[in-house]
Structures are given as C-alpha cells and as structure tokens.
Amino acid sequence: MAAVALIGWSALVLQFPLSIATSHANGLTTAEAIRTYFSFFTILTNLVGAVSLTLPLLWPNSSSGRFFSRPTVIAGVTVSIAMVGLGYSLLLRHLWAPEGLQKIADVVLHDLVPVLYVAYWLIFVPKGGLRWKSVLEWQTYPLAYVALVLLRGALSGRYPYPFIDAVTLGYGRVLFNAALLLCASLASRSRSGSD
C-alpha cells in the first residue's frame, strides 16, 4: 500500500513540470498550464488513488482515513484507476511516443499505478460487503468528470482528450465514446468477481 502510494505521488510530481513546460511551449500562461495539468482524468484519478492510499496510512483514525479505508470506496477508486489504464490503452497510446522522463511518467501513471492499485484491491481488500448497486455509484465520478470537461470545453474550446473533443467530433460521438468507456469499466468490474 505504501509503495503504491509512493510510486503514484512520485509520478504525479514528475509529470507536473513536464506538463507545465509543454503548456508553456504551446503558449499557455502558468495559470492555464496548471489548470490544464489538473484537467486530465489520468492526473485526477492518480491523485485520488494516491490520497486514498496515503490517508489511511498516515491518519487512519481521521474521518478521511476511515472513509478511504472502506472497501466500497477502495473498489470505486479501483474502477476509476482501471479506466485510466483501459482508456489510455484503447484510445490514446497510439497517438504519441513519449521519450525520456515523459515516457517514465507516462508508463507509471497509465500502466504501473493502475495495475498495482488493482492488484492491491484484489489481494488485500475485503470484497464481502460489495454489491452490484455500488457499480453505478462508482460511475458518478467519471460521469461528473465528462460533464465538467464538456462544459469547460464549450467555454474554452479546449478538451484534454481527443475522444471527448466535442468541437471536432460533435456531442453525439463524444457521448458514444463516453458510453464505450463506461461499458469497458462495467465489463472489467464484472470480471473482477464480486457479487
């Protein structure tokens, strides 16, 4: 648990200056660059994953520590972090070939952390209290993310991912893409085997 948290935090810290530099190279101000960094589902979900592993370790008796220790919460984070890996592999990996430090950050955030977090959930987290009705609750975060990104994109004209770029694809295609990711998430959840 601590190792996965440390790996996640390290990758987020590594990615931050790389993202800021890329945004500056694309003509964005520092404030816009920071907003852009935090606009990615990958970043937000890895951040939630790192927080969810850190708080129970450092402050297990705090309300936040207890919240992130709940098996249903951990399972929800697992579904989202699995979506990061699946979405990247299915929709984004072929679009670029990062090198150097960017390659390291890319692999850790999109591949290593999702695999390690899912493994942590499979091996260490009790599954007895999980119910199928929780699956829809876990989709609240990804669906809220898509809604906020579409709203922000409508106002700014910028979208963090090409598969949700409503200007280029239209809202119908974007909603179809979001539905495909939701189905992939639900399918991965059904294969994980809780009742």
How does the SSE layout of this entry go?
Elements: H1 2-25, H2 30-37, H3 41-58, H4 63-67, H5 71-92, H6 100-124, H7 133-138, H8 140-156, H9 166-169, H10 171-192
Helix pairs in contact: 1-2, 1-3, 1-6, 3-5, 3-6, 5-6, 5-10
Strand content: under 5%
Tell me the Rg in angstroms. 17 Å
Shape, per Cα inertia axes: globular
Distance between the termini: 25 Å
Largest sheet properties: none
What is the helix/strand order?
HHHHHHHHHH
Please report the total strand number as a whole number.
Answer: 0
Characterization of the model:
The chain is mostly helical and 195 residues long. 77% of the residues lie in helices and 0% in strands. It has ten helices and no strands. The chain has helices at residues 2-25, 30-37, 41-58, 63-67, 71-92, 100-124, 133-138, 140-156, 166-169, 171-192. Helix 5 packs across helix 10. The longest helix is centred in the middle third of the chain and has 25 residues, at 100-124. The protein is globular. The mean pLDDT is 90.
In short:
The protein has 195 residues and is mainly α. The chain has helices at residues 2-25, 30-37, 41-58, 63-67, 71-92, 100-124, 133-138, 140-156, 166-169, 171-192.
Keywords, please?
single chain, 195 residues, 0% strand
